Amino acid sequence: MSSPWPAAPLRILLVVDDDEIARGVAASLGPEFAGGLRTCTRPEQAAAQARSHRAQAVLLALQSLDDAERVALALQADAAARPFLLALCDGGGTAAAARLSKDGIIDDYVQHFPVPADPDRLATSVRVASRVSPPARSAAAAPGGAAVARRPVVFVVEDDEVLHTLVAAMLESEPLDLVFEADGAAAFDRIQAIGPDLVLMDVMLPGCDGVALTEQIKATPDLAAIPVVMLSGEARLDTLVRSMEAGAADFIVKPFTRESLLAKLGKYLPAPA
To answer: What is the domain extent for residue 237?
Structure first.
């Protein structure tokens, strides 16, 4: 699977409606984004700032998707070289974000968890979004040609919001980024777009059975190498057999401890640089 990280810092404009959050995001992202990231806390100025920054991607992390739509329309009308427009939304906004994408108002969206009020978790979404935003498709390099270390991305496919919160809390201090998707039918497209390092897959999902989704991942050449760890509330032999036959690498039975989750992830994620 080709790496989706840019050969040079991607010129990103992050539009967020809070000065303190903007400063926190910039601090959390660190030096690998310093050369390419600019923040805009006045949405009405986003088009002018995107033009002056020559932004390749504009990430709309606004509390209201209606506000994000207005900014996106202004960017479309104003920018001579239109940047890639990507909205960050919470779980309740995915349907609206999908509509904006389908209508061509934005190019894509990334579900952000929990809400854009936490700078560290918003920074996680910026890192994930940089994978989705073209031309982020080749190995990252720092100025001078040195490779830039990147954090592994774990994609969690699970419809239980309580488990989302639990996994986020368990892994909050770990050097990795989490992406959450509740709908099995939507998960495959998101996995293709992001190219995570590992998928935590619930067996029972709305829209698509987790085992069938695992089979689909393993049948796709660009995704087949991604390890899939199944999550199940039952330690039934037939579920285990079906999961392994579908290509799953491992299995976790709910409820699980932080230590057991870290042990599973440690078997399959790349070691920290």
So the answer is: 153-268
Last-in-domain residue among 101, 132, 163: 132
Residue 184 and residue 124 share a domain: no
164 and 93 in a single domain? The answer is no
At which residue do the structure tokens 């699977």 appear? 1
From the centroid of its chain, how far is CA 1? 17
- Within 10 angstroms of residue 243's Cβ, the number of other Cβ atoms is 24
CB 230 within 8 A of CB 237: no
pLDDT in tens, the chain (273 residues): 444 444 456 788 999 988 888 888 888 887 778 788 899 999 999 999 998 888 888 999 888 899 999 999 998 886 566 888 988 887 678 788 888 988 889 988 877 665 556 787 788 778 777 776 654 433 344 344 444 457 889 999 988 888 888 888 898 888 888 888 888 878 898 898 888 999 999 988 877 789 999 999 999 999 999 999 998 877 677 877 888 888 999 888 888 899 989 988 988 887 655
> Which CATH number does the domain housing residue 260 bear?
3.40.50.2300
User: Domains in the chain: how many in total?
Assistant: 2
CA distance 252 to 66: 39
